[in-house]
């Protein structure tokens, strides 16, 4: 495995640590503020940060490398064409506005187990779409790993899996959010052939935020903002900077480097990190069943990386 590949893996692991620990942080904030209002604030903060960083980088481009190229994770000299703008608007609508609205709205109406299982379907959807569109050659090892990690998540949270009218609205919204995430992940890859992950993520998030905030305005107006604690404000800023700005940039840099199918499987590590956070900070019990599920998740994710670790050129 090359040094570059190991760096991508390390960054993706950092991303899963951020997303997994984010659950415990926002859980306390949701006791004080409406989830949609919380999400609106963090999207605004993240969009402003993205646009500010992009403007700063544009004003002072990084030095060229020895081969004449730029560090394109953060900067690219390619101009945005008309079709690029249309795609960015589409990504903002689907991958930011609709995804965020359905994700935040569906989670409270579903069960923890249903949410985890539906989220774990994202790598499978991404793999199927990538294979169907001919963007990636998805190997049997990848499919085995995706299924094994999905089984591991079921072992960890499957006892709470429910099917019925009580969770159906939330389940439908969560599945719609998963589909939006898969579309966003795949759709962004064509843009990132010419533009940086920072620009694609930042601009699409700003577009999505402009649509999302008016859609949840009743939730925002219902919050007594003067009573919101400092801890909740810090949670919103933390979630904006780490769970959105840093993690999204890592995600799309990885999509460009190793493909959407392999990047998506790393999302299955998030419930594992959330479980560990709950054990350490919320004193939740850790039993052999959860350990077995955790092992299956880790082995499954490792299997999806076999192709890159041991290339098999055609």
Overview of this protein structure:
The protein is mostly helical. It has one domain. Helix content is 75%, strand content 0%. The protein contains 13 helices and no strands. Helix 1 (3-30) crosses helix 11 (270-281). The longest helix is centred in the last third of the chain and has 29 residues, at 230-258. The two termini are 18 Å apart.
Oligomeric grouping of the chains: single chain
Based on DSSP secondary structure assignment, what is the total number of beta strands? Answer: 0
Q: How much strand? A: under 5%
Could you describe the largest sheet, including whether it forms a barrel? none
Assign a percent range to the helix content. over 70%
Radius of gyration: 19 Å
Distance between the termini: 18 Å
The computed structural class is mainly alpha
Poorly predicted segments: 67-71, 308-314
User: Helix and strand string, N-terminal first?
Assistant: HHHHHHHHHHHHH
Structural domain count:
1
Overall 3D form:
globular
- Averaged pLDDT: 77
The helix tally amounts to: 13
């Amino acid at each position: 495995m090359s040094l570059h590949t190991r760096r991508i893996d390390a960054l993706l692991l950092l991303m899963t640590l951020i997303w997994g620990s984010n659950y415990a942080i926002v859980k306390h904030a949701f006791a004080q503020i409406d989830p949609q209002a919380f999400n609106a604030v963090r999207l605004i903060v993240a969009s402003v940060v993205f646009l500010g960083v992009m403007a700063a980088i544009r004003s002072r481009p990084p030095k060229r490398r020895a081969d004449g190229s730029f560090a394109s994770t953060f900067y690219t000299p390619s101009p945005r064409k008309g079709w690029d703008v249309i795609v960015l608007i589409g990504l903002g609508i689907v991958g930011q506005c609709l995804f965020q609205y359905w994700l935040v709205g569906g989670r409270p109406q579903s069960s923890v187990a249903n949410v985890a299982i539906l989220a774990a379907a994202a790598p499978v959807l991404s793999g199927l779409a990538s294979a169907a569109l001919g963007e990636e050659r998805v190997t049997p090892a990848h499919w085995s790993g995706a299924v094994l990690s999905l089984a591991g998540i079921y072992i960890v949270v499957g006892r709470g899996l429910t099917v019925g009218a009580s969770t159906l609205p939330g389940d439908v919204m969560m599945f719609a959010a998963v589909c939006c995430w898969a579309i966003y992940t795949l759709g962004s890859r064509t843009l990132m052939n010419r533009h940086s992950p920072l620009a694609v993520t930042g601009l699409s998030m700003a577009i999505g935020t402009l649509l999302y905030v008016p859609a949840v305005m009743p939730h925002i107006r219902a919050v007594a903002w003067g009573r919101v604690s400092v801890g909740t404000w810090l949670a919103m800023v933390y979630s904006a900077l780490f769970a959105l700005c840093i993690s999204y940039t890592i995600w799309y840099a990885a999509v460009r480097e190793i493909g959407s199918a392999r990047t998506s499987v790393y999302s299955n590590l998030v419930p594992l990190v959330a479980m560990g956070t709950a054990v350490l900070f919320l004193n939740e019990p850790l039993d052999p069943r959860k350990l077995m599920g955790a092992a299956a998740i880790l082995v499954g994710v490792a299997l999806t990386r076999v192709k890159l670790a041991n290339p098999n050129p055609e």
